[in-house]
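Thread: magnesium ion complex, take 2
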Amino acid sequence: MSLSPWSLGVFTSIDAGLGVHLDVAKDLGVPSIQLHTPHAAGRTPQAAEKFLRQIDECGIELTCVFGGFDGESYADIPTVEKTIGLVPVATRSARLIEMKEISDFTRLLGCNTIGLHIGVVPHDTQSREYADVIEVTRQICDHAQYNEQNVHLETGQESADALMDFISDTQRNNLFINFDPANMILYGMGEPIPALRQVGSHVRSVHCKDATWSDQPGKTWGCEVPLGQGQVDMRAYLTTLKEIGYRGPLTIEREIPQDRERQKTEIQHATALLTSLRKEILGC
Ligand code: MG
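Output below.
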């Protein structure tokens, strides 16, 4: 199956994560999904086969599997620093093993991309802590390479400058970016459109998500809002994606699993907005 440029997609979950369930993706009629990894018990060959059958019946293509770990919490920015990704030392080696297992499960799903929030990378690039995070990222990339996969880092927890330095320091040619414009605002890490221009050469997948700035950027969360109602200028976002030559899927993310009906309705509105902007900007 090959997707047309800027095919719409939606972020999906099975038994973990904040995405919509597959039946909603089917109802929305989107041709692609990204998937938050299921828990370990759900990462079996049988589960992979069943999932592939389900998406095949819906005519949906899986474009990326995102890693995620027990114990992660997005409660507030200091908690993110303590709990997310491969940065926290106490859980690092166990999560490295698990990320490799997620890569193996992704291979069973026939998908060539894994994604993750690596965590809040230490700012001192000369420090031992920074070198250790580089090393664990290399190990993930090398395992993914063995599985013929690319690794996409989700944006938001670093500025564009810091992210490009980190990718360069990792020295792996299968390390790319999943750009999320709303995260730049939510975490207070910079204006999303200039950031997208800056990291554009490494963007291989994107999230379509919207947000408003915090009154204390970088200290407290901004607010995630329905697409088109926040401070990501969606027309400028898509125009810039065109400028950088991005032709991959537009994957809508709306992280309000506590209200599944509203989540579905708002994603429906997002698909309408993106379809109209795509026609205007890409002409299809
Ligand atoms: Mg995202």
